[in-house]
Amino acid sequence: MLYQILEILEQAEQPLSLAELSQRLQVEPSALEGMIAFWVRKGRLRDTSALSCGGTGAGCACNAHPQGCPFSSAGPRVIMLID
To answer: What is the predicted pLDDT for the residue at 38?
Structure first.
């Protein structure tokens, strides 16, 4: 199953959302979480949910939001293959 994730992403013409990947593999999104995390740790995948704006200064919009960075969840979660 781990290698199927890579194969699907290699065949896709663009990055896939977690929902699209889940649908293609016919696996619940929650079951994919650990598999995606494995490939992210290995440096094969990038998961946009793990990205943030990276701001740290006093003027950073992230510092004004106690719930976290408003930019990290602004778009859909996308899984992409790293070449």
So the answer is: 95
The answer to whether the pTM exceeds 0.70 is no
Handedness of CA 57, 64, 74, 2 (dihedral sign): positive
Q: Say which residues have a Cβ less than 8 Å from residue 44's Cβ, sequence separation at least 6.
A: 6, 81, 82
Candidate CATH numbers 1.20.120, 1.10.3470, 1.10.10, 1.10.357; the one for domain 2-51+59-81: 1.10.10
Type of residue at 55: G
**E strands present in the chain:** 16-17, 45-47, 78-81
